[in-house]
Design goal:
The structure holds two protein chains of two kinds. By secondary structure, chain A is an all-beta fold. In chain A, strands 2, 4, 5, 6, 9, 10 and 11 form a seven-stranded mixed beta sheet that branches. Chain A has a four-stranded antiparallel beta sheet with strand order 1-3-8-7, with no helix packed on it. In chain A, β7 and β8 form a beta hairpin. The radius of gyration of chain A is 13 Å and the shape is globular. By secondary structure, chain B is mainly β. Helix content of chain B is 0%, strand content 50%. Chain B contains no helices and twelve strands. In chain B, β7 and β8 form a beta hairpin. The chains are: A mainly beta, B mainly beta. Chains A and B meet through β5, β9 and β10 of A and β5, β6 and β10 of B.
């Protein structure tokens, strides 16, 4: 069983809606990640939070807004999305050490459909 | 240039047989980590196995083992005694020493494994 949880599992939203994706980890990790994955493609990194500070923003459009309220929680706020934003959104966490052994553990993902 | 290459888009294997999924990588960094993940159709990315560049022995985790050939820059995943539940997408990934930007994984394109009963 994964120790990274994500809600909701599925989300359908219109282009004018505002919604949020939530992620929680219970492993005491200090780094958390958002990825976007299109069908039959590898995950693409969107954001990285390290010790609750945003350390990477991979040129993601401003209609995606991340938030890290504490070291266990990570949110992704969505506003005015486009149909091409429909994808599987994966959250991950890791210990956050700067070595190459730092292993990322993923949640089950949220399947987002934008109409 | 691709940093992680998985040359097999799709593979079939008979149940109970062993299968090898290929992964080659490209880095000039002497310190790096290699990871394999399994992604069933449900979507979750499941961490399977890790190999560090300085590790002397090939990594093993249950039915999973890594055939690490450093000089060839390959890190192939071997699954022994395949089970129907092994049918999934498999991703090879690499982490080099981080720059100031943080902890980044580079993924290969994936291999879809289908286990036949």
């Amino acid at each position: 069983d994964t120790e990274v949880t994500q809600t909701p599992k599925h989300l359908v939203m219109g282009m004018t809606n505002k919604k949020s994706l939530k992620c929680e980890q219970h492993m005491g990790h200090r780094a958390m990640y958002w990825y976007k994955q299109k069908a039959k493609k590898p995950p693409e990194l969107m954001f990285v939070y390290s010790y609750e500070k945003l350390s990477i923003n991979e040129s993601v459009p401003s209609r995606f807004s991340p938030e890290c309220p504490n070291s266990s929680l990570l949110n992704l706020h969505l506003h005015a999305l486009q149909p091409e934003d429909s994808a599987l959104y994966l959250c991950a966490s890791s210990q956050g050490n700067r070595g190459y052994t730092d292993t990322q553990y993923f949640g089950p993902g949220t399947r987002l459909t934008v109409l | 240039a691709q940093k992680i290459t998985q040359t097999q888009p799709g593979m079939f294997v008979q149940e109970k047989e062993a299968v090898t999924l290929d992964c080659t990588y490209d880095t000039s960094d002497p310190s790096y980590g290699l990871f394999w993940y399994k992604q069933p159709s449900s979507g979750e990315m499941i961490f399977l196995i890790y190999q560090g560049s300085y590790d002397q022995q090939n990594a093993t985790e249950g039915r999973y083992s890594l055939n690490f050939q450093k000089a060839r820059k390959s890190a192939n995943l071997v699954i022994s005694a395949s089970q129907l539940g092994d049918s999934a997408m498999y991703f090879c990934a690499m982490r080099e020493l981080p720059d100031n930007a943080g902890n980044m994984l580079t993924f290969g394109g994936g291999t879809r494994l289908m286990v036949k009963p």
